[in-house]
Every structure is written in structure tokens, then in C-alpha cells.
Design a protein that fits this description.
- The protein has 493 residues and is an alpha/beta fold.
- The chain has four domains: 97 residues, Alpha-Beta Plaits (2-Layer Sandwich), CATH 3.30.70; 85 residues, Met-10+ protein-like domains (GMP Synthetase, Chain A, domain 3), CATH 3.30.300.110; 201 residues, Vaccinia Virus protein VP39 (Rossmann fold), CATH 3.40.50.150; 33 residues.
- It is built from 13 helices and 21 strands.
- A hairpin with a 2-residue loop joins strand 20 and strand 21.
Length: 493
Amino acid sequence: MAALVRSFLTRLQNLSILQTPTISRTIKMNSADLPELFQPPVSRSMKTLDKSFFRKVIPLAAASVSDMKQITNVRKELEKSSDMLKINPIKPLREDETMPGAKCFLLTPGVAANEPKTWSPTISRLVELKIAKLRPYDLTLTYDDWTMHNILEAILPEIPDDEKETPAGFAQVGHVAHVNLRTPYLPYKYLIGQVLLDKNPNVTTVINKTFDVGTESVFRTFPYEVLAGPDDLDVVVHESGCEFRFNFGKVYWNSRLGTEHARLFESFREGEAVCDVMAGVGPFAIPAGKRKVFVWANDLNPDSYDALQDAIVRNKVSDFVIASCDDGRNFVRTATTKLSQNPRKVVLKSRVKISRKASEDEKRAFQEAAKNEERTLDEPTAFSHYVMNLPASAIEFLDAFKGVYYGREADFEPHTRQKLPFVHLYLFQAKLDNEQAEYEDTCKRISEHIGAEIRLDDPQLDMQIRYVRLVAPKKKMFCASFRLPASVAFAQP
């Protein structure tokens, strides 16, 4: 019998149908291609979560295998013939409770255990040679088996595509998931909160923002309501190798901006001085400090300032990052003046480690080598970058740059190698007919506030406008980076 089985498997490998097999792809439960048979029951009127409602029995066929030595081979053949059920995360290999010690493979819905005409040549041969035996199998799926998207699609009202914004698209900050629910979803808000909580193991609190950020608070904080879990917004967040601790309800943080944060601070060079005017809890300042960039970081929000100070200590960047709690317009001027008067020096010590087993002579040699490898970073007397990350209103602070370097022309080109600093301005821009029109409008607005003509094609400005993200259907967020115009920097205040 064993020889017959080996011969059969060899013949299967040599069949032309298996030489160029069509292997069906695995379908995920979230996929739009998920067959209706595997979709959860629908209830558009559910207001309180009833998990038992989602129990569903799906009639399938299964190929039972009693010889455990054949499991691997049978799996390969069923995969090649596309007979095995491939829906992630449903496990196709199961214990066969009808045959002690046997296992079974779940088969695709088109296969009926008692109808050989629905069997593929591979299944027929496996049954003929008694390698496998087909049997009916009732697959039971419950609330725990379906994804968050599956459940929400089954319980939320059907909304026109142009108004639909899936609540599953939440943002996560530490253990907090926050959503911005549109009006049609509000009657289902607690139901949505519970599903999000159940389906995301790292989430313990779900909140809904009740107003847009910035519309109610100068600190970009927001009123919120708890949809599920405790009212605990004290979070721990990791970004760019740094740890931040803060109360999400009292400061501004957007996890979706991590890539943008990195793009900018990675452009700063070691030893440069950066003025972070609206620093928040430090997503630019702290990673920059780790890169040995001198940062003067400021935020008007006392809670942001406290979290920033904590992050400086927690991430060990106190040699490079200074925190302030001041009005942004005033900070631009005071920080620029203070930097010119009292720049810092940081001694970078060698990382040479001395072995405990080293002799006294070896220790002295190591210490001397370490001392020789020490170097000092001198903080410049002028900033190379100003970061203004307050998209709703930072543009209004540009007038603070008028005369900020008045009387200091000799500190910059062409008298020295020091160029005038870059201003990195984050701002919202209305969506217009095309990108060029948006750029031109952005330049026009900047010009009005800074008091000088700002053009993309001005070689003295090295200007770039970068699209960051779509904030709303008709509103974009840009980062406009340009050198401070000489006519502004050296103007009489």
C-alpha cells in the first residue's frame, strides 16, 4: 500500500495540471473579495453589542487524513489544486473529532463531501487511494473570529460613498484610540467604541473628538467623550527612538506625522542650532537633540512644556535641548538674542570602555586614549533653522522675524560662511484647481505676513513647498521651507 501511495504522489507531481499549478491566493477577512458565505450576520439596528448574534455555522467539506505521515504531502497537493480553504486567519488544518488521532483539511465551499462530481482530480485520487476521506464539516465562526472591519460593516448604517468615512480608521496614541465620528455614526458611537476596544489588544480607551483640533483651544487640544474603557489619557508614546509621556487630552500629538517629523529633523546637521517655536512635547526637538543638534524648544501650553521637560530628561538630551514656555512671537526674538550672547559648549566624551581586568598601566593608557578622543561642540551664535509647527496660525507669527538679526549683517554671507536661517513653516492651504495655484497662493500669503516677496523661483530663498497630508476634503497641510529674506532679517525693528 505504501508503494502504491508513493507511486500516486509521483504521478501527481508529473501531471501537466500540476506542473504549472494555479495556486489560489489567501484571502483576508478584511478583503472586499471575502465570499458572502464567510461574512458575518448583518444587523443595522443593533445599538448595544450582542456578541452572540455573530455566531454563524458554515457547511463545508473536509478531507480527513488518518496517516500523520501523509499530512505534509496532502497539504501540498490540496494547495496546488486550489482545493484547500485559504482564508486568513481561519486555520485549514483541524482535529477530526469523528476519527480518533486523525486530522482534516477544510476545503473550499465548492466541494461537497457527498457529491463526487464536485471533486477535483486531486481529491478523487486521494479518496480512491484511501489517503484521504471526505466528510461534511460545520465550521463555526463567532464574534472573535471576525475582524473589526467585518463587525463594523455588519452593524453600521449604509452611507453614500461620498459621505462615508469608516470609523475603523482610528488613530492610536499610546493605549488610546481616537476617532472623529461623522453625524450618521453618532447613534452607534458606544457600539463602535466597544468593537474597537475588543479588536485592538493594545487599546484600553476609545475616545471621540467632539470638535476639530484648534477650533476651541489655542493649545490645539480638544474636547472629547469616552466611548469605551476608562477615562485615562496619560499615555506613553515612542517615536524616532525617543519616549514621550503626556496626557493626550491636554497636549497636541498626531501619530500620523512621525514620517514628517523625521524628514525635517534628519535634515539638521550635528552642531547646528535650531529654534523650535511651537515645539509641543518635542517630536522635532528631542530626536534632533539625540543627533547632537542644539535646540531651543518652546511651547505656550504649560502641559506641553512640562511634557517637553520630562522628555528632555527621559531621553538624556539636556546638553542639547532647552525648554521654554513663552509666546511664539516673543520667543523668536528672545531666543535669537540669547543664543548670540551665551552659546553653549558640550564635551563629547569617548565611549572607550575599560576592562575591569585591565592592569593599572592599561587603565591609564585607556584613560589617556579616551581623553584624546574627546571633542567639543560649540553652539553657533545664530540659528540655522526655525521650525514653526502650528499649521492653523503659525503664518501669523512671521512678522516676528522683522529685524531679528538687525545690525548683524557681518555675521552672515558674504562676510562669513554662515547663511541666513531656514524657516520651516507648517500651514493649511485651501485645495485649489491645481498644485501650482496652491503654491502661488501659499507664497502670496507668506509674503503678506513676513513683509517681503516670497517666490518659489527666487534663488536666494532656496524655497521648497512640501505636501504633508490632506486634512479635509478641501484642505491640505504644507510645509514651506525658505531662507529668511535679508530684507526682513536685517530690517530695523
